[in-house]
Amino acid sequence: MEAPCVRVERERGEETRKRLAEAGLLANEFEIEVEDGRLYLPVTDADAVPEELEIVTRAVGERDTPETPADLLGFEPTYERLGDIVILDEDDPATAREIADAVMASDLPVETVVNRASKVKGELRVRDWEVLVGESTETVHREYGCEFLLDVAEVYFSPRLATERNRVAEQVRAGERAFDMFAGVGPFVVPFAKRGAEVVGVDLNERAVEYLRENARRNGVADRVTAIQGDVRDVVSGSSDESDGGEEVASEYSDWADRVVMNLPHSADEFLDTAVELAGDDCVIHYYDIQHEDDPFGPGETAIRAAADPEYEVEVETRHVVRSYAPHELNVCLDVRLSR
Questions:
Q1: Which PANTHER family does the UniProt entry name for this protein (predicted)?
Q2: String of b and e for 141-158 (b: at least 16 CB within 10 Å)?
Q3: Which of 242, 180, 240 is nearest to 216 (CA)?
Q4: Average pLDDT over residues 320-336
Q5: What local confidence, expressed as pLDDT, does residue 66 receive?
């Protein structure tokens, strides 16, 4: 069977295999082939492979498929993987238990199975969980060469947004100053810093900020990351005093940022004045929103222009649909350049 493959010299094979696996791009259903001193690593999505890697299409053998939960259940269950945790969203307790048992009996490398017991709630954006199997809700999640330690019971994190985070991270250039207004455990902050940016991440959730600092350390970018716990409006106005070193964070971030991430889609518009205060002379804002499919971008664009006027010219560089959020509602991102 033919499949897209990354072709790489044998001595770089393991490094590249691990990199593709961490990004979720390795096609495990196919064999890795060796020919003429080169490895051919089958991939799931050729378009998502980093540009510096060579892609070829060639015949590859199929691997014996490991036993999956679907093999044991007789139907395809819906679940998400986050590190060694499987996340269910089942209303029926009996069905949730049946799926959890099948997950643990399958070949999936899983330690814990949880079922969503509430929606995301409160200022800290956390959920209640029913732990069906296992004890710990802490795990290490890997995506696009970064790893994130987190506890699903204490912080918000969506593995579904990995592709979107990488889309934004690929726009970052070394030497930039980037500010994530709602940083969580660092899924934007860490890859930005790995690309050479100086990054500030702010979050209300104290545990999320602790994980952000740890994730900066474990990814080797602690020297380029400042993690601050508090309301970003207070941080930027100078009224917060909690930083990595416990020192006062004056209004040093006004006119500071080359790039701002606003991933709080239900209420990002309430923070636009702060984003404009953060922006330097030329700044890109990544503004996330949830709107009706009839006009998913209009309300956000109107709000940004109103907040930026008259100080900045506003250019919408990208209108991007991230995913379907609910019937007739879309999660979208506006990449907007503010020029003073």
A1: TRNA (GUANINE(37)-N1)-METHYLTRANSFERASE, TRNA METHYLTRANSFERASE
A2: bebbbbebbbbbebbbbe
A3: 180
A4: 96
A5: 67
Query: In the structure, what pLDDT confidence band is assigned to residue 37 with cuts at 50, 70 and 90?
Result: confident
Alpha-carbon distance of 114 to 135, in angstroms, equals 10
Calculate the CA dihedral of residues 169, 170, 174, 175 and round it to 10 degrees. Answer: -50
Angle at 206 between CA 204 and CA 211, to 5 degrees: 115
Q: In 10 A of CB 75, how many CB atoms?
A: 9
φ/ψ of 80, rounded to 5, equals: -120, 150
Domains of the chain: 2-59 (3.30.70.2580), 69-136 (3.30.300.110), 156-339 (3.40.50.150)
Comparing 174 with 252, the larger pLDDT belongs to 174
Pairwise CA distance, residues 122 & 50, whole Å: 37
Q: Is 159 exposed, middle or buried (0-12, 13-18, 19+ CB in 10 A)?
A: middle
pLDDT tens-digit series, residues 264-277: 999 999 999 999 99
Q: Which H/E stretch holds residue 201?
A: strand 198-203
pLDDT in tens, 55-81: 999 999 888 766 889 989 999 999 999
Residue-level pLDDT at 121: 82
User: Rounded to whole angstroms, how far apart are CA atoms 120 and 332?
Assistant: 19
Strand partners, 147: 142
Assess whether the previous peptide bond of 296 is cis (omega < 30° from 0): no
DSSP letter string, 68-101 = -HHHHHSS----EEETTEEEE--S-HHHHHHHHH
CA distance 228 to 73: 46
